[in-house]
Amino acid sequence: MTPEQVLQTTPKVLSERQRVSYYDDGYLLVEKAIDDHWLARLRTATEEMVMSSRKVSASDATWDIESGHSAAAPKLRRLSSPNDHHPDYWAYACSDIVLNIVADLIGPDIKFHHSKLNFKWCGGGEEVKWHQDIGFWPHTNFSPCTVGLYLYDCDNNQGPLGVIRGSHTGTLYDQYDTNGEWVGCLSDDDVTQLKQDDIVYLPGPAGSLTIHNCRSIHGSQVNLSVQPRPLLLNVYSATDAMPYTFNPLASRYAGEIVRGKAARWARHDAGPCLIPPDWSGGYTSIFALQQKEGVAPN
Ligand SMILES: O=C(O)CCC(=O)C(=O)O
Question: What is the CATH T-level fold of the domain 3-290, as seen in this structure?
Answer without folding.
Answer: Jelly Rolls (2.60.120)
